[in-house]
Amino acid sequence: MVAPLHPRQRLLMGPGPSTVPARILKAISSPTLGHLDPQYIGFMDETCEMIRQVYRTSNALSFPVSGTGMAGMETIMVNLVEPGDEAIVMVNGVFGGRMKDVLSRCGARVHSVEVPWGESFSRQHFADAVKEHPNAKLLAVVHAETSTGALQDLSEVGDIVHRAGMLLAVDAVTSIGGHELRVDDWGIDAIYSGTQKCLSCPPGLSPVSFSPRAIEVIEARKSPVQSWYLDVTMLKNYYTGAGGRAYHHTAPINMVYALREALSIVLEEGLDERVERHRQMHQRLRQGLESLGLKYIPEHSLHTLNCVSVPEGIDEAAVRKRLLDEYDIEIGGGLGVFAGKAWRIGLMGESASEKNILTLLAALEQCLQ
Ligand code: PLP
């Protein structure tokens, strides 16, 4: 026997998950339906349509992969790449590094372009990369690098990549629902994200979207997709209804309810309004952190993830422990080269509010004394 489940009510201001609104928790506890029940199919179709709206795309193949953000990353890579293909990956933190690892495991010859952690890539980096590796099939880049807090401008990348005859694949795990994201306007061919960051939904699904150009590439494959579970040529029958709603795997029904609710909250607020709220909250937090003497690491900081250096002489883990134990506030520590040297403070979705910022700044001030 275990004690009844009573998780503490924490203020989640780390790199994700973020605080989940009661509306979403209520949706997830609704009665479970069968995954082929017409009522459930209706909910799922609505969810896919809202994924299109939030990504600002008309891509027919847009759906929630059953798995977290990493499953989305694998879905994009295993479907687009065959053994022996060449791929370019832009690496400026942990998640660019993971894309490189996943692509290598798909059998690709990976060319990585690296800048120091915390920096972003310029237009020239992309132009040089496609020139240097003209045979690459795709270029992969992280929009919001959660390990460093750096934002990557993608508005001009699509043209460069397409002119070189390649596909553009993007990680939008920490930008969806928090930063401007325009899949069609920016020429993104394949994109994945997660539910637990700026959508403020529990972790468990990864909204993905493939452009018609990406689908052509998948349909022209010479070898079958290495992963059975993530093969979109089979998944698309269930999610788009093409060829009937054939059973592939049992969809995580109640997680889809949660995502449907989360996406409708995003659209009720309005995409532009939500991006603007995250911008304003970032400015408010930044002002407060800087007045406590903390310095931002990236030049182009995300609004959704604020990465600051730990001041000399401060035990970063001890501060995080005090915030959690005494104030029920979670923030993140540094990852990779920033381990022990940085704090990562998330302002994601529901968590991005003035009230939370003031609470965190007051508690942090106490911990730094
Ligand atoms: N990509 C980025 C930029 C992330 O921040 C994360 C998670 O933090 C992932 C991918 C992996 O997502 P998950 O942990 O949901 O599998």
Automatic annotation (TrEMBL):
<dbReference type="InterPro" id="IPR000192">
    <property type="entry name" value="Aminotrans_V_dom"/>
</dbReference>
<comment type="similarity">
    <text>Belongs to the class-V pyridoxal-phosphate-dependent aminotransferase family.</text>
</comment>
<dbReference type="InterPro" id="IPR015421">
    <property type="entry name" value="PyrdxlP-dep_Trfase_major"/>
</dbReference>
<dbReference type="Pfam" id="PF00266">
    <property type="entry name" value="Aminotran_5"/>
</dbReference>
<dbReference type="GO" id="GO:0008483">
    <property type="term" value="F:transaminase activity"/>
</dbReference>
<keyword id="KW-0032">Aminotransferase</keyword>
<dbReference type="InterPro" id="IPR024169">
    <property type="entry name" value="SP_NH2Trfase/AEP_transaminase"/>
</dbReference>
<feature type="domain" description="Aminotransferase class V">
    <location>
        <begin position="35"/>
        <end position="334"/>
    </location>
</feature>
<keyword id="KW-0663">Pyridoxal phosphate</keyword>
<dbReference type="InterPro" id="IPR020578">
    <property type="entry name" value="Aminotrans_V_PyrdxlP_BS"/>
</dbReference>
<protein>
    <submittedName>
        <fullName>Alanine--glyoxylate aminotransferase family protein</fullName>
    </submittedName>
</protein>
<keyword id="KW-0808">Transferase</keyword>
<dbReference type="InterPro" id="IPR015424">
    <property type="entry name" value="PyrdxlP-dep_Trfase"/>
</dbReference>
<dbReference type="InterPro" id="IPR015422">
    <property type="entry name" value="PyrdxlP-dep_Trfase_small"/>
</dbReference>
